From TrEMBL:
Protein name as annotated: Peptidase S9
Top-level taxon of origin: Bacteria
Pfam families: BAAT_C
Residues in BAAT/Acyl-CoA thioester hydrolase C-terminal domain copies: 138-290
InterPro entries in UniProt: AB_hydrolase_Est10, AB_hydrolase_fold, BAAT_C
Length: 498
């Protein structure tokens, strides 16, 4: 019995190992060294202070209209520099984004425009970054049409997901004066997602075995289709960046490749003959350059000084400054699962297998109910029963396989929530994982007991599952449970360091 269970676990462990890619991120061995701990921008002038006026305007897009908040410095002596803000992921509006940045720039004499994000073409499954760049270009055109704005001094400020859009805008419109990239992913979304998942899981303290799920989840085609944008690569656009670029990261932002991203933009811009890339790192700041949910004041001061001081600040030293960044692993292309690449197949397989187990559990009671009804009508009892032990172990196998699968899915959701909240819970992270694996091994033991019961009854010439209903129930539960055990093995429940 023990030997059979061990053999079953080993077989599942081997299957899980060979069915899909492992997760083995490459360490980053070429760190980016800051020139000074001060984030001050070289040659930044003393900034003026203006009162500002705000108004909500409409920007006409291709097939839609969005509202935008325009902030204009009061008392300008002539047409001024201007900035269009590009939102990160989510439903960005001028009422909930970029308040501090827009105010700081406007008070320093820069006209700012924060348009609402267009949402009729933006969903979780569909995002077209090139089309989004065209939409934001309409806001640039709007600013250039204003008498308060110098049309040759309009730039773009992009944060997070917006940093995939801004290089497209800059490549397609060389007349843009500058680009500010804040918390920029740089690498394609799928690579950034795997990198962030790895960092979150390490911060949460999950057992090493859970990491196998990263390439198998991130690398597969997502159930339901769509999500083509996850492989969008901005490299070709970054290699056409001729404008001065300011890149800003917080060293507490574990979701972004804060070293690799800066290095790549510096190299890409150099291909266009552009050496004017300035990089700043702010100590302990998270995504969006915030500490304790408050934007870092030094960032606002430095960013404003860099923008107002152009073109003098474009190539000023130091080029790379602030807190020393640390990135442990590279954000890399995600291995594609060999066998279970299709997410629809994975989802349907799990749901269908659980459904088969549950439905099979109803077949025999329904059949027995029909037999009892026949007896009450004057018929005879069939006398059909599962062979001794078969019914008990079959029910335990099906229930155990479903419970383990549901428990694993729930565990992944719990871990995801902890990771997104940057929190840890040792009892849940380690204890629940151990519990799932223990239950998984017990299910294998139950399968061995069922197999032994079948073999013993056959040797004694006892019918295993007499009648069509019992045969269907037995085959359904055993088959569906076997599929679920293989799926659990694929996601790492039975791994033995293989």
């Amino acid at each position: 019995m023990l030997a059979s269970t061990v053999l079953g676990v080993v077989v599942l462990a081997v299957l899980g190992a060979v069915m899909g890619p492992q997760w083995d991120p490459v360490p980053l061995t070429d760190p980016l060294t800051v020139e000074t701990s001060s984030t001050a921008i070289g040659q930044a002038p003393a900034t003026e202070h203006h009162d500002v006026r705000r108004e909500v305007v409409s920007v006409q897009l291709d097939g839609a209209t969005v509202e935008a908040q325009l902030t204009v410095p009061v008392g300008l002596s002539g047409p001024a520099r201007a900035v269009v803000f590009v939102h990160g992921a989510g439903t960005g509006t001028y009422s909930d984004a970029f308040h501090e940045q827009a105010r700081a720039l406007a008070e320093a004499g820069v006209v700012t425009l924060v348009p609402n994000k267009r949402l009729d073409t933006y969903t979780l499954r569909h995002r077209d970054y090139v089309a989004m760049a065209d939409d934001y270009a309409r806001s640039v055109a709007y600013l250039r049409s204003l008498p308060e704005v110098d049309p040759e001094r309009v730039g773009v400020y992009a944060e997070s997901e917006g940093a995939w859009i801004a290089p497209v805008m800059a490549a397609q419109d060389p007349g843009l004066e500058f680009v500010v990239l804040v918390s920029a992913p740089v690498v394609p979304p799928r690579q950034q997602a795997a990198f962030a998942a790895d960092a979150y899981l390490r911060a949460t303290g999950v057992p090493h075995g859970v990491f196998r799920a990263i390439p198998r989840a991130v690398g597969m085609a997502i159930p339901g289709g769509g999500f083509e944008y996850v492989d969008f690569d901005a490299t070709s656009y970054q290699r056409r960046l001729t404008q001065p670029v300011l890149m800003v990261y917080g060293t507490g932002d574990s979701s972004m490749p804060i070293v690799q991203g800066a290095v790549q933009v510096i190299r890409d811009a150099a291909i266009a003959g552009n050496s004017d890339v300035t990089v700043r790192y702010y100590e302990g700041a998270s995504h969006g350059i915030r500490v304790d949910d408050q934007i870092v004041p030094a960032f606002l001061h430095d960013m404003t000084g860099w923008v107002v001081g152009l073109p003098g600040t474009a190539g000023a030293s130091p080029k790379i400054a602030g807190d020393q960044p640390n990135q442990t692993f590279l954000a890399m292309p995600v291995p594609e699962p060999r066998w279970l690449h299709n997410g629809d197949v994975v989802a349907v397989t799990i749901i269908a297998s659980c459904a088969v187990v549950l439905l099979a559990g109803l077949v025999v009671p329904v059949s027995r109910g029909a037999e009892l009804a026949a007896v009450r009508r004057g018929g005879q009892r069939s006398g059909r029963r599962f062979a001794p032990g078969v019914a008990r172990w079959t029910a335990a196998l099906g229930a155990g396989a479903v419970v383990t699968t549901v428990g694993f899915v729930w565990y992944i959701l719990v871990i995801a929530r902890l990771a997104l909240d940057y929190s840890s819970n040792g009892l849940v992270v380690t204890g629940l994982w151990l519990a799932i694996r223990v239950v998984g091994v017990l299910v294998v033991a139950v399968a061995c007991l069922l197999s032994r019961s079948i073999v013993r009854n056959r040797a004694q010439h006892v019918p295993i599952a007499p009648g069509a209903a019992r045969t269907v129930a037995l085959v359904g539960v055993v088959g569906a449970s076997a599929v679920l055990l293989v799926v659990l093995a694929y996601w790492g429940v039975y791994q033995l360091g293989i």
